[in-house]
Amino acid sequence: MSCHVDVVGQGHPLVMIHGWGMHSGVWQPLVKRLSKKYMLYLVDLPGMGQSRSVEPYHLYRLAEEVAEVIPGVSDILGWSLGGLVAQSLATNQPERVKKLVLVGSTPCFVNEPAITKMPGWDAGIQRDYFTDFSQSLDEDYKKTIIKFLTLQCMKAKDARDTIKQLRNSFDAKPAPTEKTLKDALHILLEADLRAESINIRKPTLLIHGDRDTLVPVQAAHWMMQHMSKSVLRVIAGAGHAPFLSHSEQFVEALDQFLEPDPSAKWQTSWMT
Fold first, then answer.
1. Which of 260, 68, 131 is nearest to 85 (CA)?
2. Least CB-packed of 11, 56, 158, 171 within 10 Å?
3. Bridge-partner residues for 39, per DSSP?
4. Contact at 8 Å (CB) between 210 and 235?
5. Least confident piece of the model among 14-18, 80-84, 86-90, 143-147
6. Are 206 and 98 in contact (CB under 8 A)?
7. Phi/psi of residue 173, each to 5°?
8. What global pTM score does this model have?
9. How many helices (H) and strands (E) does the chain have?
10. Residues near 201 by beta carbon (within 8 Å), at least 6 away in sequence
11. Domain total in the chain
């Protein structure tokens, strides 16, 4: 097994999967509160945090490695790259997933032209962003990471504080190698799960910031429209890391979805 996992708390299992270049420490500001209700499985993806890398390094392999260290049936929460891993789990091992939470997530990070049998995709960002990051990793690894963290929060309210939290989280565990970062970046460049995601039949909560510059909110609206059991929470003023910038609203949405009040009517979408 390649994935390191920290287990904290009690209650129904909630697996939390981080994004590119980060590790499970990114969830630390939420752990004390969430661990009172859930048994948290805080996963370090292969090659990140305290997990050793794997070969070949591709999306389905990452999902398989995560599946080996989590309970038989769990609620799965994935952020950014972790959202792709969570979607892969829900697609290929649906019996392992009770509910799905996708944060700042998308089936496809990069804009794509229309090709035979597949419509174009304009709810991502330009491919050049990721190719530039890949090239700059060779030149200045630390500077590139900081640039990527800044991009995630650029237009959000309280962006400076959120970037500070992300940088502090990044420094809390061993840094990934440049090869791991490039391999994971390649996943962001090439993954297109549109055909798979529309077949996910698990109850799914989409949490997205309306100022997300890395994954435009249009991607979340597309997922809500195409995933039959999905609901969308758009958090006004939030960027790519709403669990840090708007933690109260984030946890409230999470609790309402995972532990709903039987007397309340669950809305298909709402804006704060």
1. 68
2. 56
3. 9, 13
4. yes
5. 143-147
6. no
7. -135, 170
8. 0.92
9. 11, 8
10. 94, 228, 229
11. 1
Structure tokens at 36: 């009172």
In 31-127, DSSP assigns E strands to: 38-44, 74-79, 97-103
pLDDT digits (tens, 9 = 90+) for 202-221: 999 999 999 998 999 999 99
Considering only CA atoms, which of 170, 224, 202, 236 is closest in space to residue 93?
A: 202
Q: Are 219 and 84 in contact (CB under 8 A)?
A: no
Short-list 266, 248, 253, 162, CA closest to 207: 253
Annotated catalytic residues are 80, 212, 240
Taken as a whole, the chain contains a residue count of: 272
Angle, CA of 200, 86 and 172, to the nearest 5° = 165
CATH number at residue 261: 3.40.50.1820
Output b/e per residue, 221-248; b: 16+ Cβ within 10 A. Answer: bbbbeebeebbbbbbebbbbbbbbbbee
